[in-house]
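Saturday, quiet lab. Running sequence design on the structure tokens for the scaffold JK sent over.
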């Protein structure tokens, strides 16, 4: 089974809209606060240029406005400007790291900066920031998952399992932790544990497309084609444009002797951007 990289970006987009309530760090300048509020409104309208302009104004009026740096860093992340994100997160960290009352805020900042390093493939600094996140907030579930993903990328499966398991201990309903741990178990040959984790991920999130695909692949490799077919079909129910699910369901159909259905899936896989399906079309679908 191929390793599936987690998308840390997923967390950040979820957090952006709640930053105002999560970070209670008020500016000393009321005009700066006003610009921050305008930035929030502009972001909700998806006017990102105006959002940045308002945040710039807030920071120009109060260069110790940590919440504004954090918000601007998050905006830079969303715009894939990781270097600017790192700069703003670092400034926000410097402003709050000695304030014991802001430990939760500091943990989020370390986590987000680690995510930016991750996107730049700077795993050394990413892990360092995830370590700091966990030191400040030992129950920060996403940090364990993110650190585990880096260890998994480096084939440190023992370390990855430890982090994913810790993530589950901190939040037993966190589907992605079960999913990622399931992939590691599969890659080290523990199929039974892998299937158990993938099942739990799906129990927690019945629309978890990647988990359906991963479990289907495990069934497919074990030649349990009916179950594989069922899981690929469920994946496509929730994401009809999954080239991977279409490709592999086509392979299962071919194994079951259903050529027409196989060829239809492979052709559809090509239409939605898949490239691997072409070799199967060339081999099995020529009249």
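Result came back. Writing it out in full:
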């Amino acid at each position: 089974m191929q390793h599936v990289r987690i998308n840390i970006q997923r967390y950040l987009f979820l957090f952006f809209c709640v930053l105002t309530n999560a970070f209670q760090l008020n500016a000393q300048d009321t005009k700066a606060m006003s610009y921050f509020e305008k930035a929030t409104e502009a972001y909700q309208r998806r006017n990102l240029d105006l959002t940045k302009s308002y945040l710039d104004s807030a920071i120009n009026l109060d260069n110790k406005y940590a919440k504004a740096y954090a918000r601007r860093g998050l905006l830079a992340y969303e715009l894939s400007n990781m270097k600017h994100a790192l700069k703003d997160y670092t400034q926000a960290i410097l402003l709050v790291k000695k304030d014991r009352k802001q430990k939760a805020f500091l943990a989020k900042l370390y986590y987000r900066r680690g995510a930016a390093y991750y996107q730049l493939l700077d795993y050394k600094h990413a892990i360092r920031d995830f370590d700091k996140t966990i030191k400040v907030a030992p129950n920060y579930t996403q940090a364990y998952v993110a650190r585990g993903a880096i260890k998994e990328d480096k084939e440190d499966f023992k370390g990855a399992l430890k982090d994913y398991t810790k993530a589950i201990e901190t939040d037993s309903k966190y589907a992605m932790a079960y999913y990622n741990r399931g992939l590691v178990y599969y890659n080290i040959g523990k199929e039974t544990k892998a299937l158990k984790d993938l099942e739990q991920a799906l129990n927690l999130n019945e629309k978890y497309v990647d988990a359906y695909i991963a479990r289907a692949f495990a069934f497919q490799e074990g030649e349990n084609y009916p179950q594989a077919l069922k899981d690929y079909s469920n994946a496509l129910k929730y994401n009809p444009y999954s080239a991977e699910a279409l490709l592999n369901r086509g392979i299962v159909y071919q194994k079951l002797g259903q050529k027409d259905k196989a060829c239809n899936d492979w052709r559809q896989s090509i239409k939605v951007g898949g490239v691997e399906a072409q070799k199967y079309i060339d081999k099995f679908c020529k009249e």
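Notes for JK: Residues 109 and 159 are 24 Å apart (CA to CA). The radius of gyration is 22 Å. Ask whether to fix the surface positions before the next round.
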